Amino acid sequence: MRLGTGVLAAVLAAGTAGCGGGTAAPPPPVPAPPSSAVPAPAGQSFYVWDGTSAARQSVALRGQGRSAEADVLARLAASPSARWLVGAADDRATVEEQTRLAAAAGRTALFVAYDIPHRDCGQFSAGGAPDAAAYRAWIDGVAAGLGEGRAWVVLEPDAVPHALEACGPQGTDATERYGLLAYAVRELKKHPQVRVYLDAGNPGWVQDRAALAEALRRAGVAEADGFALNVSNFYRTEDSAAYGAELSAALGGKHFVIDTSRNGNGPLGSGAWCNPPGRALGEPPTTRTDRPGVDAYLWVKIPGESDGDCGRGEPGPGQFWLGYALGLAGAA
Fold it and tell me: Which entry of 91, 158, 239, 295 is annotated as an active-site residue?
């Protein structure tokens, strides 16, 4: 389990960094498309939503006279993080509102689309759309909500790497998943100001870059703006950048983004994905990365949200955890 959720998904959780149990055979080869990578505009800044748990708790703590903690959370809340869309009935309305507010502020909205059927190998974030038709209808609504607004979308964390795992969809189910992801990319990219990044896991997960590249092609990465790495994980930026450069080379030069929300101190150790102690915030969100092919550092995971009850009494998945948030900020 490794994925965090947004404020809208307080009862959902992190995806796994590989569900174990062996690796399925790679998908059949798909010819590599010519590169269509278009660098992101370096001057874009992302919208800061004032409804995050960090923002609300900052106000509450100040009212309790806990000004030092309130100040830390206020600084945390001042950095833009993603709004997670997890299949709620009002997701289209949420997208419309967030995109409108971002436009009014002269900024870019940032979303995570996370409702693929058979999500998360049945683990903490199990669920998703009940079937393919429901997923396509949901994507249609999200795309309609974007309209002409300017937004970036990280598409379906874990969905492609899990398709290469024994716990993930197999056979015709895998074919369906790739088709749904390609459909989502295509519908979202009908909107000219929307950038789409298809999730590709993290440096500690799929080591067969060729198999992962083929899976991403089947999932429509040729029509996307690129792929996303390290979502809700802890790998250092330089490690994700090196992994991404290799994957990009296999994809004809596709660009990518890196989740830096909790990677300031790197990972605690192999497999320590669930609320590991001593972690720190990473680089602030920006499109000025000074790394070729890296379009942005993003806070995709919302800092301070729990990965779940890891057996130590932590809050449930997606719930804001004051102590963890203060630890991330304090260690940065």
Answer: 158
